[in-house]
Design goal:
This protein has 401 residues and is α/β, with parallel strands linked by helices. The protein is built from 15 helices and 14 strands.
Amino acid sequence: MGEMPVKYAVVVCDGMSDRPVEEHNDKTPLSAACTPEMDKLVRKSEIGIVKLSDSASKPDGIRANMSVLGYDPIKYFKGAAPLEATAAGVKFDDSDMVFQCSFVSLTDEEKYEDKIMTGWSSEISKQELNKLAGYLNFHMGSDIFHFDSGNGNGIFLVWKNGQPEAGTFSEPETVIGNVIKNYLPKGDFTPVLIHLMEESYEILKDHPINYERMEHDQIPINSIWLWGEGNKYPVCNFGKQYGIQAALLSSDQKMLGFGILSGMDIFRTDVPAKKAADLFSDGTDFVYIHTDMSDVYGKSGDFTGKTRFIEQMDSEIIGKVMNTLKAIGEDFTLAVVSSVSTPCEMCCNTGEPVPYLIYRSDREIENKTIHFDEKTAFDSGNYIPYGTSLVSRCFAINQVK
Protein backbone atom coordinates (compact mmCIF):
# COMPACT_ATOMS: atom_id res chain seq x y z
CA MET A 1 0.00 0.00 0.00
CA GLY A 2 3.02 2.28 0.17
CA GLU A 3 4.09 4.49 3.04
CA MET A 4 1.21 5.02 5.50
CA PRO A 5 0.70 7.29 8.53
CA VAL A 6 1.25 5.66 11.89
CA LYS A 7 -2.12 6.31 13.54
CA TYR A 8 -5.67 6.44 12.22
CA ALA A 9 -8.91 7.54 13.87
CA VAL A 10 -12.29 7.31 12.15
CA VAL A 11 -15.24 8.97 13.89
CA VAL A 12 -18.59 7.80 12.53
CA CYS A 13 -21.74 9.57 13.63
CA ASP A 14 -24.87 7.66 12.60
CA GLY A 15 -27.58 9.98 11.33
CA MET A 16 -25.56 13.21 11.60
CA SER A 17 -26.46 14.22 8.05
CA ASP A 18 -29.85 15.87 7.58
CA ARG A 19 -31.89 18.11 5.27
CA PRO A 20 -32.55 21.87 5.59
CA VAL A 21 -35.47 22.70 7.88
CA GLU A 22 -37.41 25.84 6.99
CA GLU A 23 -38.34 26.77 10.56
CA HIS A 24 -34.62 26.66 11.45
CA ASN A 25 -33.63 29.16 8.73
CA ASP A 26 -33.13 26.36 6.20
CA LYS A 27 -30.29 24.96 8.26
CA THR A 28 -29.52 21.38 9.18
CA PRO A 29 -28.44 20.40 12.69
CA LEU A 30 -24.87 20.07 11.38
CA SER A 31 -24.87 23.52 9.73
CA ALA A 32 -26.54 25.07 12.79
CA ALA A 33 -24.14 23.47 15.26
CA CYS A 34 -21.16 25.32 16.71
CA THR A 35 -18.30 22.96 15.82
CA PRO A 36 -14.96 24.73 16.25
CA GLU A 37 -12.93 21.51 16.18
CA MET A 38 -14.32 20.32 12.86
CA ASP A 39 -14.08 23.87 11.53
CA LYS A 40 -10.34 23.87 12.29
CA LEU A 41 -9.96 20.57 10.45
CA VAL A 42 -12.07 21.44 7.44
CA ARG A 43 -9.68 24.22 6.37
CA LYS A 44 -6.91 21.65 5.94
CA SER A 45 -8.84 18.53 4.93
CA GLU A 46 -10.34 16.78 2.01
CA ILE A 47 -14.11 17.04 2.24
CA GLY A 48 -16.85 15.68 0.03
CA ILE A 49 -19.85 13.40 -0.07
CA VAL A 50 -19.86 9.62 -0.14
CA LYS A 51 -22.55 7.10 -1.06
CA LEU A 52 -22.66 4.60 1.80
CA SER A 53 -26.19 3.20 1.32
CA ASP A 54 -26.90 0.94 -1.63
CA SER A 55 -30.15 1.24 -3.56
CA ALA A 56 -30.93 -2.48 -3.21
CA SER A 57 -31.59 -2.44 0.54
CA LYS A 58 -33.15 -0.31 3.26
CA PRO A 59 -30.74 2.41 4.48
CA ASP A 60 -29.50 1.72 7.99
CA GLY A 61 -26.52 2.38 10.20
CA ILE A 62 -24.97 -1.09 10.30
CA ARG A 63 -24.87 -1.50 6.52
CA ALA A 64 -23.41 1.99 6.12
CA ASN A 65 -20.75 1.33 8.78
CA MET A 66 -19.80 -1.87 7.00
CA SER A 67 -19.24 0.23 3.87
CA VAL A 68 -17.07 2.69 5.78
CA LEU A 69 -14.87 -0.21 6.88
CA GLY A 70 -14.60 -1.48 3.31
CA TYR A 71 -17.05 -4.39 3.47
CA ASP A 72 -19.72 -4.44 0.77
CA PRO A 73 -23.03 -4.89 2.64
CA ILE A 74 -24.68 -6.49 -0.40
CA LYS A 75 -22.12 -9.27 -0.14
CA TYR A 76 -21.53 -9.45 3.60
CA PHE A 77 -24.69 -8.36 5.43
CA LYS A 78 -26.39 -11.50 6.76
CA GLY A 79 -28.93 -10.02 9.17
CA ALA A 80 -28.89 -8.20 12.49
CA ALA A 81 -29.33 -11.21 14.77
CA PRO A 82 -25.95 -12.86 14.06
CA LEU A 83 -24.18 -9.59 14.91
CA GLU A 84 -26.01 -9.02 18.19
CA ALA A 85 -25.68 -12.69 19.11
CA THR A 86 -21.93 -12.58 18.48
CA ALA A 87 -21.60 -9.52 20.73
CA ALA A 88 -23.66 -11.34 23.38
CA GLY A 89 -21.32 -14.35 23.31
CA VAL A 90 -23.84 -16.76 21.78
CA LYS A 91 -22.14 -19.75 20.15
CA PHE A 92 -23.37 -20.92 16.75
CA ASP A 93 -21.91 -22.63 13.69
CA ASP A 94 -21.56 -21.33 10.15
CA SER A 95 -24.52 -23.43 9.00
CA ASP A 96 -26.87 -22.26 11.78
CA MET A 97 -29.54 -19.61 11.45
CA VAL A 98 -29.92 -17.07 14.24
CA PHE A 99 -32.99 -14.99 15.08
CA GLN A 100 -33.61 -12.12 17.44
CA CYS A 101 -36.20 -13.28 19.93
CA SER A 102 -38.15 -10.30 21.22
CA PHE A 103 -40.83 -10.48 23.89
CA VAL A 104 -44.13 -8.91 22.93
CA SER A 105 -47.55 -8.36 24.43
CA LEU A 106 -50.53 -9.76 22.51
CA THR A 107 -54.27 -9.55 23.08
CA ASP A 108 -56.22 -12.71 23.93
CA GLU A 109 -58.15 -13.58 20.75
CA GLU A 110 -58.58 -17.33 20.32
CA LYS A 111 -56.60 -17.69 17.11
CA TYR A 112 -52.96 -16.63 17.34
CA GLU A 113 -53.02 -14.86 13.99
CA ASP A 114 -55.98 -12.70 15.09
CA LYS A 115 -54.20 -11.25 18.11
CA ILE A 116 -53.10 -7.62 18.20
CA MET A 117 -49.60 -6.64 19.30
CA THR A 118 -50.01 -3.98 21.96
CA GLY A 119 -46.35 -3.51 22.78
CA TRP A 120 -42.91 -5.04 22.99
CA SER A 121 -40.39 -4.84 25.76
CA SER A 122 -36.68 -4.13 25.68
CA GLU A 123 -36.68 -3.42 29.42
CA ILE A 124 -35.95 -6.92 30.66
CA SER A 125 -33.21 -7.49 33.22
CA LYS A 126 -30.35 -9.91 32.60
CA GLN A 127 -31.68 -12.08 35.41
CA GLU A 128 -35.11 -12.21 33.75
CA LEU A 129 -33.58 -12.99 30.35
CA ASN A 130 -31.59 -15.89 31.75
CA LYS A 131 -34.68 -17.29 33.45
CA LEU A 132 -36.77 -16.91 30.30
CA ALA A 133 -34.14 -18.57 28.11
CA GLY A 134 -34.03 -21.55 30.45
CA TYR A 135 -37.83 -21.68 30.62
CA LEU A 136 -38.19 -21.59 26.83
CA ASN A 137 -35.57 -24.28 26.36
CA PHE A 138 -37.25 -26.52 28.96
CA HIS A 139 -40.61 -26.33 27.20
CA MET A 140 -39.66 -25.73 23.55
CA GLY A 141 -35.96 -26.44 23.10
CA SER A 142 -34.61 -29.39 21.11
CA ASP A 143 -31.55 -30.56 19.21
CA ILE A 144 -32.72 -28.30 16.39
CA PHE A 145 -33.91 -25.18 18.24
CA HIS A 146 -32.09 -23.60 21.16
CA PHE A 147 -32.73 -20.34 23.03
CA ASP A 148 -29.64 -18.52 24.31
CA SER A 149 -29.34 -15.29 26.29
CA GLY A 150 -25.53 -15.14 26.04
CA ASN A 151 -24.25 -12.45 28.38
CA GLY A 152 -27.76 -11.21 29.07
CA ASN A 153 -28.21 -8.53 26.38
CA GLY A 154 -31.09 -10.32 24.65
CA ILE A 155 -32.42 -13.75 23.77
CA PHE A 156 -31.66 -15.42 20.47
CA LEU A 157 -33.05 -18.49 18.77
CA VAL A 158 -30.40 -20.68 17.15
CA TRP A 159 -31.78 -22.98 14.44
CA LYS A 160 -29.28 -25.80 13.94
CA ASN A 161 -28.47 -26.13 10.23
CA GLY A 162 -31.40 -23.82 9.52
CA GLN A 163 -32.54 -22.71 6.10
CA PRO A 164 -30.42 -19.71 4.94
CA GLU A 165 -33.40 -18.28 3.04
CA ALA A 166 -35.91 -18.91 5.80
CA GLY A 167 -38.40 -16.26 4.69
CA THR A 168 -39.36 -12.66 5.38
CA PHE A 169 -39.79 -11.30 8.91
CA SER A 170 -41.14 -8.09 10.46
CA GLU A 171 -39.56 -5.99 13.17
CA PRO A 172 -41.87 -5.86 16.19
CA GLU A 173 -41.94 -2.05 16.29
CA THR A 174 -43.65 -2.08 12.86
CA VAL A 175 -46.39 -4.40 14.13
CA ILE A 176 -47.54 -2.57 17.27
CA GLY A 177 -51.22 -1.68 17.16
CA ASN A 178 -51.96 -4.12 14.36
CA VAL A 179 -53.39 -7.62 14.00
CA ILE A 180 -50.33 -9.82 13.62
CA LYS A 181 -51.66 -12.02 10.79
CA ASN A 182 -50.14 -9.95 7.98
CA TYR A 183 -46.84 -9.59 9.83
CA LEU A 184 -46.13 -13.21 10.69
CA PRO A 185 -43.08 -14.80 9.03
CA LYS A 186 -43.68 -15.64 5.37
CA GLY A 187 -41.90 -18.31 3.34
CA ASP A 188 -41.66 -22.02 2.64
CA PHE A 189 -39.73 -22.72 5.84
CA THR A 190 -41.58 -20.43 8.26
CA PRO A 191 -44.47 -22.66 9.48
CA VAL A 192 -42.19 -24.33 12.04
CA LEU A 193 -41.15 -20.89 13.31
CA ILE A 194 -44.72 -19.66 13.53
CA HIS A 195 -45.52 -22.81 15.50
CA LEU A 196 -42.79 -21.86 18.00
CA MET A 197 -44.29 -18.39 18.36
CA GLU A 198 -47.77 -19.84 18.91
CA GLU A 199 -46.42 -22.34 21.44
CA SER A 200 -44.60 -19.57 23.30
CA TYR A 201 -47.89 -17.76 23.90
CA GLU A 202 -49.35 -20.79 25.67
CA ILE A 203 -46.37 -21.19 27.99
CA LEU A 204 -45.64 -17.48 28.65
CA LYS A 205 -49.10 -16.02 29.22
CA ASP A 206 -49.27 -17.32 32.81
CA HIS A 207 -45.56 -17.10 33.61
CA PRO A 208 -44.89 -15.62 37.10
CA ILE A 209 -42.68 -12.95 35.54
CA ASN A 210 -45.78 -11.26 34.15
CA TYR A 211 -47.35 -10.85 37.58
CA GLU A 212 -44.14 -9.21 38.75
CA ARG A 213 -44.02 -6.95 35.70
CA MET A 214 -47.61 -5.80 36.12
CA GLU A 215 -46.93 -4.97 39.78
CA HIS A 216 -44.24 -2.60 38.48
CA ASP A 217 -46.52 -1.12 35.77
CA GLN A 218 -44.67 -2.96 32.99
CA ILE A 219 -46.42 -4.62 30.07
CA PRO A 220 -46.85 -8.41 30.24
CA ILE A 221 -44.73 -10.43 27.82
CA ASN A 222 -46.80 -13.34 26.57
CA SER A 223 -45.19 -14.30 23.26
CA ILE A 224 -41.87 -14.37 21.48
CA TRP A 225 -41.45 -12.58 18.15
CA LEU A 226 -38.76 -13.82 15.75
CA TRP A 227 -36.98 -11.47 13.35
CA GLY A 228 -33.54 -10.16 12.28
CA GLU A 229 -32.64 -13.57 10.84
CA GLY A 230 -29.22 -14.44 9.45
CA ASN A 231 -26.17 -16.65 9.67
CA LYS A 232 -22.50 -16.14 10.43
CA TYR A 233 -20.64 -13.43 8.51
CA PRO A 234 -17.77 -14.72 6.31
CA VAL A 235 -15.69 -11.55 6.63
CA CYS A 236 -11.94 -11.17 6.36
CA ASN A 237 -9.85 -9.87 9.25
CA PHE A 238 -9.69 -6.07 9.04
CA GLY A 239 -6.36 -5.66 10.82
CA LYS A 240 -4.60 -8.37 8.83
CA GLN A 241 -5.95 -6.96 5.58
CA TYR A 242 -4.20 -3.63 6.21
CA GLY A 243 -1.34 -4.84 8.41
CA ILE A 244 -2.46 -2.90 11.48
CA GLN A 245 -3.80 -3.41 14.99
CA ALA A 246 -7.39 -2.18 14.99
CA ALA A 247 -10.02 -1.43 17.63
CA LEU A 248 -13.70 -0.49 17.53
CA LEU A 249 -15.49 1.61 20.16
CA SER A 250 -19.28 1.58 20.27
CA SER A 251 -22.30 1.06 22.50
CA ASP A 252 -24.27 -0.64 19.72
CA GLN A 253 -24.56 -4.44 19.87
CA LYS A 254 -24.55 -4.87 16.09
CA MET A 255 -21.42 -2.78 15.69
CA LEU A 256 -19.65 -4.64 18.50
CA GLY A 257 -20.62 -7.95 16.90
CA PHE A 258 -19.26 -6.88 13.54
CA GLY A 259 -16.07 -5.70 15.22
CA ILE A 260 -15.59 -9.18 16.70
CA LEU A 261 -16.27 -10.93 13.40
CA SER A 262 -13.84 -8.66 11.53
CA GLY A 263 -11.09 -9.35 14.05
CA MET A 264 -10.96 -5.98 15.80
CA ASP A 265 -10.58 -5.40 19.52
CA ILE A 266 -13.93 -4.12 20.76
CA PHE A 267 -14.81 -1.86 23.65
CA ARG A 268 -18.13 -0.60 24.99
CA THR A 269 -17.46 2.81 26.49
CA ASP A 270 -19.19 6.10 27.33
CA VAL A 271 -15.92 8.05 27.06
CA PRO A 272 -14.53 7.06 23.65
CA ALA A 273 -11.93 9.82 23.47
CA LYS A 274 -10.22 8.64 26.66
CA LYS A 275 -10.35 5.01 25.55
CA ALA A 276 -8.95 5.95 22.16
CA ALA A 277 -6.06 7.75 23.87
CA ASP A 278 -5.32 4.66 25.98
CA LEU A 279 -5.43 2.41 22.91
CA PHE A 280 -3.10 4.61 20.88
CA SER A 281 -0.70 4.73 23.84
CA ASP A 282 -0.76 0.93 24.03
CA GLY A 283 0.18 0.51 20.36
CA THR A 284 -3.15 0.33 18.55
CA ASP A 285 -2.84 1.76 15.03
CA PHE A 286 -6.48 2.23 14.01
CA VAL A 287 -9.41 3.27 16.23
CA TYR A 288 -12.96 3.31 14.88
CA ILE A 289 -15.27 5.41 17.07
CA HIS A 290 -18.98 4.85 16.45
CA THR A 291 -21.76 7.01 17.89
CA ASP A 292 -25.49 6.78 17.23
CA MET A 293 -27.19 9.51 19.25
CA SER A 294 -27.62 11.78 16.21
CA ASP A 295 -29.59 8.96 14.65
CA VAL A 296 -31.73 8.67 17.79
CA TYR A 297 -32.48 12.40 17.81
CA GLY A 298 -33.17 12.39 14.07
CA LYS A 299 -35.65 9.54 14.35
CA SER A 300 -37.47 11.38 17.12
CA GLY A 301 -37.55 14.62 15.08
CA ASP A 302 -35.54 16.51 17.72
CA PHE A 303 -33.60 19.17 15.78
CA THR A 304 -32.30 20.91 18.91
CA GLY A 305 -31.21 17.68 20.60
CA LYS A 306 -29.40 16.56 17.46
CA THR A 307 -27.64 19.92 17.12
CA ARG A 308 -26.49 19.82 20.74
CA PHE A 309 -25.19 16.28 20.41
CA ILE A 310 -23.16 17.22 17.32
CA GLU A 311 -21.64 20.08 19.31
CA GLN A 312 -20.84 17.69 22.17
CA MET A 313 -19.29 15.19 19.78
CA ASP A 314 -17.18 17.96 18.26
CA SER A 315 -15.69 18.97 21.60
CA GLU A 316 -15.68 15.72 23.57
CA ILE A 317 -14.65 13.30 20.83
CA ILE A 318 -13.17 14.99 17.77
CA GLY A 319 -11.30 17.71 19.63
CA LYS A 320 -9.89 15.37 22.26
CA VAL A 321 -8.92 12.66 19.75
CA MET A 322 -7.18 15.32 17.65
CA ASN A 323 -5.20 16.49 20.70
CA THR A 324 -4.22 12.90 21.50
CA LEU A 325 -2.96 12.28 17.98
CA LYS A 326 -0.99 15.54 17.94
CA ALA A 327 0.61 14.67 21.28
CA ILE A 328 1.89 11.34 19.94
CA GLY A 329 4.16 13.34 17.62
CA GLU A 330 3.82 11.07 14.60
CA ASP A 331 1.89 11.30 11.36
CA PHE A 332 -1.81 10.52 11.62
CA THR A 333 -5.12 10.55 9.79
CA LEU A 334 -8.43 11.64 11.31
CA ALA A 335 -11.69 11.07 9.41
CA VAL A 336 -15.23 12.13 10.26
CA VAL A 337 -18.27 10.81 8.43
CA SER A 338 -22.02 10.47 8.85
CA SER A 339 -22.93 6.86 8.13
CA VAL A 340 -26.54 7.58 7.12
CA SER A 341 -28.75 10.62 6.82
CA THR A 342 -31.60 10.83 9.35
CA PRO A 343 -33.67 13.93 8.52
CA CYS A 344 -35.55 15.30 11.54
CA GLU A 345 -38.57 16.03 9.36
CA MET A 346 -38.75 12.42 8.17
CA CYS A 347 -37.73 10.61 11.39
CA CYS A 348 -36.07 7.78 9.45
CA ASN A 349 -32.87 6.84 7.65
CA THR A 350 -32.51 7.92 4.04
CA GLY A 351 -30.05 6.78 1.42
CA GLU A 352 -28.60 10.01 0.00
CA PRO A 353 -24.83 10.62 -0.01
CA VAL A 354 -23.43 11.91 3.28
CA PRO A 355 -20.62 14.34 4.13
CA TYR A 356 -17.13 13.16 4.97
CA LEU A 357 -13.92 14.82 6.09
CA ILE A 358 -10.40 13.35 5.95
CA TYR A 359 -7.50 15.16 7.60
CA ARG A 360 -3.97 13.87 7.15
CA SER A 361 -1.20 15.47 9.15
CA ASP A 362 1.46 14.83 6.50
CA ARG A 363 -0.65 16.14 3.63
CA GLU A 364 -2.70 19.14 4.68
CA ILE A 365 -4.99 20.55 2.01
CA GLU A 366 -5.54 24.28 1.75
CA ASN A 367 -9.14 25.27 1.07
CA LYS A 368 -11.44 28.18 1.85
CA THR A 369 -14.16 26.17 3.57
CA ILE A 370 -14.90 27.52 7.04
CA HIS A 371 -17.61 25.11 8.25
CA PHE A 372 -18.17 21.39 7.76
CA ASP A 373 -21.73 20.52 6.79
CA GLU A 374 -23.80 18.91 4.04
CA LYS A 375 -23.69 21.92 1.71
CA THR A 376 -19.97 22.64 1.95
CA ALA A 377 -19.25 18.94 1.44
CA PHE A 378 -21.48 18.88 -1.66
CA ASP A 379 -20.07 22.16 -3.01
CA SER A 380 -16.53 20.75 -2.84
CA GLY A 381 -17.26 18.70 -5.95
CA ASN A 382 -15.70 15.61 -4.39
CA TYR A 383 -17.93 12.56 -4.67
CA ILE A 384 -17.13 8.96 -3.75
CA PRO A 385 -19.79 6.76 -5.40
CA TYR A 386 -18.69 3.56 -3.66
CA GLY A 387 -18.54 3.82 0.10
CA THR A 388 -16.33 0.76 0.45
CA SER A 389 -13.41 2.78 -0.92
CA LEU A 390 -13.57 5.38 1.88
CA VAL A 391 -11.36 3.48 4.32
CA SER A 392 -8.59 3.06 1.76
CA ARG A 393 -8.72 6.81 1.22
CA CYS A 394 -8.09 7.24 4.94
CA PHE A 395 -4.90 5.23 4.58
CA ALA A 396 -3.72 7.06 1.46
CA ILE A 397 -5.72 9.92 -0.02
CA ASN A 398 -5.88 9.82 -3.80
CA GLN A 399 -7.66 12.06 -6.25
CA VAL A 400 -11.41 11.76 -6.00
CA LYS A 401 -13.02 10.27 -9.09
